[in-house]
Amino acid sequence: MSLSPTHSHAPPLLFLLLLFALGISLLIPPEAIPRGKIYEIYLTVQRKEDLRLPMAGCQTLLSPIVSCGPPGVVLSRPVILSMDHCFDACLDNWAVRLKKQNYEGAWEDVLLMGEELVSEPYYCQLEAETCRLFTEQLGTFALVGESLHMGAAKRLRLVLFSDAYCSTLEYNIRVYCMDDTQDVFK
């Protein structure tokens, strides 16, 4: 999708890229793209198998790995990246970090939830099942958490698969324990 600012005689536009079935969206407010610039903006979900996210100690992935870009785009105001997460959203129970993949492919901690400063380039608004990331820098992001004590809870979903038809009374059932986010089923 190509996005460019409107001409001076038209009102500024609001753009929304939505991956509805995956619970992911990118809201680009009016005047976020500087006048005279044209960017091809994308929004994708990365498969965990394709993009290894290194985690230390007892860390666990709490959200899908989401890419929006192109990286390096200069924005005039923050965009809002919304994505599902699968934890209880009580920061008393979790140490949650926003990770971003840098240009070399390495992952960096860019924000510790609950310790955001207004001067930082990232801010997260946490809701029961959604995280809204406000940023002027596009890239690849994920939420990673480490439980602080026994009260920490991560929502999981058990998924069962079997053949649709079986000629005998013997069925093979596969059971998967998956994060409770919309993207894991797609």
UniProtKB/TrEMBL annotation:
SMART domains: ZU5. It comes from the Eukaryota. Gene3D superfamilies: 2.60.220.30. Residues 1-25 form the signal peptide. Keywords: Receptor, Signal. Residues 4-147 form the ZU5 domain. Pfam families: UPA, ZU5. InterPro entries: UNC5A-D, UPA, ZU5_dom. PROSITE patterns: ZU5. This is Netrin receptor unc5a. It comes from Characodon lateralis. The gene is UNC5A_2.
